[in-house]
Design brief:
Layout lengths: L8 H5 L3 H22 L4 H10 L13 H7 L10 H10 L3 E3 L5 E3 L1 H11 L2 H9 L4 H17 L6
Antiparallel strand pairs: 1-2
């Protein structure tokens, strides 16, 4: 693509949304993961703790196997994400345990770590939203959700 820094509104309207959403996805994921790494954790590690915590995504706090966790994360888990590798340091730190059925369980220490990790999210989001007012952000998400539905996708 040619330089797009100074495109008119008419030129922007003719741009392929998939190109821009792809660039946005890569940039936002890389930025988020880099900020999380600065705090000593990875996005998949945070997801593991969230999915296993009865105080977050898990409705009942029951343990889950890696395949069950992969299924639960299927809409956002990236091809390079390895939940077995992500779980290893959490097990070593005592934040997760593994039972005889190979289910991972969050410990009290793991839930405390999850809360600490979650505490970094507002600063990350603030940086991403910098210079964008809430109305524009909401409009952007509504437009993206409509494009997804228009192409047969689901926004559930």
């Amino acid at each position: 693509m040619t330089t797009t820094e100074h495109l008119s509104d008419a030129e922007l309207a003719a741009q392929p949304a998939a190109y821009w959403t792809g660039l946005a996805n890569r940039a936002l994921v890389a930025f988020t993961r880099a900020r999380q790494a600065e705090h000593g954790f990875s996005q998949p590690q945070f997801w593991l703790l969230r999915h296993l915590s009865k105080n977050d995504i898990s409705p009942d706090g029951r343990g889950m196997t890696v395949p069950e966790l992969e299924q639960a994360m299927r809409t956002y888990l990236r091809p390079e994400d390895d939940l077995v590798a992500a779980a290893r340091p959490l097990l070593e730190r005592g934040w997760l345990t593994r039972d005889a059925e190979d289910r991972l369980w969050i410990t009290d220490e793991g839930d405390e770590a999850r809360v600490t990790m979650k505490g970094h999210a507002p600063a990350i989001l603030a940086r991403i939203h910098e210079g964008i007012d809430d109305a524009d952000y909401v409009t952007t998400l509504k437009v993206l959700r409509r494009m997804i539905r228009n192409t047969g996708g689901t926004t559930d």
